[in-house]
């Protein structure tokens, strides 16, 4: 068995959810730079050295100064070795970062063993390495480091040298008080590490979700640009190609039918017509006309968005319902954020619908509202409160970021199956000035409603360019 296989096997034994493809492979760089941990260790070394000298020489309390100095010097030597061995920008794998932080716990435990154990007020520093791990590493490594810290707290609470104190005045704390110190350290390590891990996890998940949203919107912008470029190319090249075809046809008629020159003119005309056909198919005039329109009536826009999702087995109905009869239908901007945001909502509804999706547009003088309702099973009860967060999905057999993962480990390929579709839709609709709400319908199915104040998507100014771009 190789070294890597051995490491993977004992990690899998420690926590069965370990996945050597997604969590902590040694070859995969983590989120922590070596310089960050080294700087924190230098800070700890300086604090420990100053404290030892102040207590021993300033306060006059006797300390085992040489053993303590050896423990501090060991940390300094480790930092020096790492500085020589690696570049300052070197990123540690999760496994390596856990090992370095575990060393810090053990070194602190050695110092506390020499200076009174958990009776020493600086035993509170056991919390620091665990909180650092919780903020930067995955759950498995955080739990492993927390276990090391709890073991160190327990051992130094039982076995330790006397607390430095004036001669002739021994300090003896009641066992109950020592138990309280131990309990406070255990609770502090547990609470702060869980809190830091949850905050870091939510921040990483949100950042990853926003990155996926940026990619989706950038793709939509690229597709719109390609369509406009193809239409422009077809328009600009159509005229000269038409002229070439006319001239070649005239030459073909003027030359003797069986002459080589007539054959060349015929070939030239055929190739010119072929080029025109290629440009026509590339530009797709029927779509280019739609793309060239900046604003559309709301119903036409919704029908355009729903068209790609209509199939023989699924009916998507667009219903218009003004609040007041005779109120003009709003004309809305065809912004990529609006097209992609509502497109994701309709696509999700089409995926879960049994036979029908209703897209209902309502408007009055104050707001525009678009509701998408399907006749499927509705949102799962365990996610209805979290709908709209990144990596929340109820699709069977698809990937969503689990609660034990700090952030995605793969590229944003197939993001629609990762629990990002609704998050992207909600984010893009909010970029246009709207709000999104989701709920289950009592008669069955789910309903997603987007609302905009009048002027947000139908005003004189196009909804803002995405803040991501």
Helices and strands in order:
Blueprint (H helix, E strand, L loop, with lengths): L2 H12 L17 E2 H25 L6 H21 L5 E2 L1 H21 L12 H10 L2 H20 L16 H80 L5 H24 L1 H8 L2 E3 H9 L8 E8 L8 E3 L2 H17 L3 E8 L3 E8 L46 H11 L3 E6 L5 E8 L16
Parallel strand pairs: 4-6
Antiparallel strand pairs: 1-2, 3-5, 6-7, 7-9, 8-9
Helix pairs in contact: 2-3, 3-4, 4-5, 4-6, 5-6, 5-7, 6-7, 7-8, 7-9, 7-12, 10-11, 11-12
What does this structure look like?
This protein has a five-stranded mixed beta sheet with strand order 4-6-7-9-8, with helices on one face. The protein has 469 residues and is an alpha+beta fold. Residues 1-29, 285-292, 396-401, 408-418 and 465-469 have low confidence and may be disordered. The protein has helices at residues 3-14, 34-58, 65-85, 94-114, 127-136, 139-158, 175-254, 260-283, 285-292, 298-306, 336-352, 421-431, and strands spanning 32-33, 91-92, 295-297, 315-322, 331-333, 356-363, 367-374, 435-440, 446-453. α4 (94-114) packs antiparallel against α5 (127-136), α7 runs antiparallel to α8 (260-283) and α10 (298-306) crosses α11 (336-352). It folds into three domains: 3-165, no CATH class; 228-290; 295-453, Heat Shock Protein 90. The two termini are 49 Å apart.
């Amino acid at each position: 068995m190789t070294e890597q296989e051995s490491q993977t096997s004992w990690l899998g034994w420690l926590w069965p959810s370990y996945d050597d493809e997604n969590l902590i492979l040694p070859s995969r760089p983590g989120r922590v730079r070596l310089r960050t941990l080294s700087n924190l260790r230098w800070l700890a070394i300086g604090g420990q050295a100053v404290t030892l000298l102040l207590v021993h020489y300033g306060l006059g309390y006797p300390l085992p100064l040489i053993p303590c100095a050896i423990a501090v010097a060991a940390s300094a030597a480790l930092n020096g070795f790492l500085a020589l061995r690696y570049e300052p920008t070197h990123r540690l794998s999760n496994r390596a970062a856990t090992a370095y932080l575990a060393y810090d716990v053990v070194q602190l435990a050695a110092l506390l063993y020499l200076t009174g154990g958990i009776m020493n007020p600086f035993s509170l520093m056991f919390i620091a390495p665990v909180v650092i791990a919780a903020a930067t590493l995955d759950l498995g490594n955080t739990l492993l480091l927390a276990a090391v810290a709890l073991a160190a707290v327990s051992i130094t609470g039982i076995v330790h040298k006397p607390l430095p104190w004036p001669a002739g005045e021994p300090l003896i704390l009641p066992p109950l008080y020592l138990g309280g110190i131990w309990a406070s350290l255990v609770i502090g390590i547990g609470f702060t590490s869980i809190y830091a891990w949850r905050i870091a996890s939510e921040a990483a998940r949100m950042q990853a979700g926003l990155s996926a949203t940026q990619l989706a919107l950038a793709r939509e912008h690229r597709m719109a640009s390609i369509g406009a470029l193809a239409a422009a190319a077809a328009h600009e090249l159509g005229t000269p190609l038409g002229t070439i075809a006319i001239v070649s046809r005239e030459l073909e008629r003027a030359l003797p039918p069986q002459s080589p020159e007539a054959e060349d003119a015929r070939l030239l005309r055929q190739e010119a017509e072929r080029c025109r056909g290629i440009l026509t198919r590339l530009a797709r005039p029927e779509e280019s006309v739609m793309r060239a329109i900046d604003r559309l009536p709301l119903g036409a826009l919704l029908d355009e968005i729903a068209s790609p999702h209509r199939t023989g087995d699924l009916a998507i109905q667009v219903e218009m319902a003004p609040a007041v009869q005779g109120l003009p239908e709003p004309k809305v901007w065809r912004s990529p954020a609006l097209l992609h945001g509502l497109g994701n909502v309709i696509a999700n509804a089409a995926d879960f619908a049994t036979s029908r999706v209703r897209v209902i547009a309502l408007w009055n003088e104050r707001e525009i509202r678009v509701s998408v309702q399907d006749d499927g099973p509705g949102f799962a009860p365990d996610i209805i409160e979290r709908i709209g967060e990144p990596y929340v999905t109820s699709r069977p057999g698809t990937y969503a970021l689990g609660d034990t993962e700090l952030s995605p480990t793969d590229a944003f390929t197939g993001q629609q199956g990762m629990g990002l579709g609704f998050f992207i839709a909600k984010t893009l609709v909010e970029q246009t000035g709207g709000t999104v709400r989701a709920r289950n319908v009592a008669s069955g199915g789910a309903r997603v409603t987007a609302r905009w104040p009048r002027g947000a998507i139908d005003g004189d100014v196009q909804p803002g360019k995405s803040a991501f771009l």
